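User: structure tokens for this one?
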Amino acid sequence: MPQKTMTNKTMTNKTMTNETKTIETQCQSLHLRRIGKIRAICGFYILSLLMLGVVACGSSSSAQAEEPALLVAPEEPAGGGQTQHTPPTALPGQPVGFASLTAAPTGGEGGQSVVVTTAAELGSALKRSEPLIIYLQGEITCTNLLSVKAADKTLLGLSGSKLVSAQRDAATSGILSFKEGSTNLILRNLTFESAGAYDCDGRDNLCIDGTTRIWVDHCDFQDGVDGNFDCKNASDEITISYCRFRYLKAPLAGGSGGSADHRFCNLWGSSDSQTQDRGHLRTTFLGCWWDEGCRARMPRVRFAQVHIVECLYSSSVASRCVELGYEANVRVERSVFRNIKQVYMDHEGSDSDHQGSISFADCLFPGSTAPTSLGTAFTLPYTLPSPLSVSEVETKVRAEAGATLSVK
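Assistant:
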């Protein structure tokens, strides 16, 4: 009996051992399932928090939340056929002349690159506080003037891009205006195309208002309603290089301003009363082309020191080219005036206290009457690198002025 009892106890112990193992296995399985659930729940909450963080970052201010999304230009070729953009440093040319007087503009150098395809996206990018390189892609339609204060921005027009406005009235015409306080800007390879000249107190293709350290290079300005490109209100340290100005559309008569043909290209200084412009509006026009359709104001200058160098004038409808206004001081060098009726006009006449000055050096006047210099032009505060011979100017300007850069 004692032996049998021992056997039963042994069997009982084995049974208990098996049951214990079963219970332990079940507990381990339950424990693992609980851990799995806990991990799943934690993962869900972590993902939720991350999503909330993204939303919170994207809506830190109501202004940011309303801004359209921008496409980030990849640093390396990405999938889907996207190609790398040519960086600005790879493009030929650097700012010279008055724009480089204090410190040459660097624009968005060192900043992120973004692509814009609408006027809203362009406005959003320009308003950002950080440096940006902004690529314009395709045809961007402007239904109203885009007026913005911008700093540390580079605008580059991709091949085939253009800014277009079909508006031809005082309220909604114009394309882009930089407001007072804008600074350190570079615009290259942009095409501006408006509805055509109309003297209705409208807006310009481009206007710089209280803007400093700006380089506008290889841009094409067409058919501005009021002007193609104007400058006012103590803007300063400006260089405009290898830009093309023209009118391809017929002017519209009957506007409130009274002019039947308002193809007046560039106004530099808006009024004789704007005495704060004294010592400002200093501008270099280098390699620019006033092409067909330009009638006057190439440019019309008040107060400013303006250096026109290696430029071409060839509009068959030009009634006058350079216009001297109140205290204007213009220096023209190595430029070509082809078949021009009146190379310059003095608006002040006998007002010797405020009469402008203009000088011509090493210029050509084929089919034009060579003018006589008036007064004493200012002394250049800078030296231009690699000056052209005047005999080379017309060929080079015709080949290169306008949106001719290869930006991809």
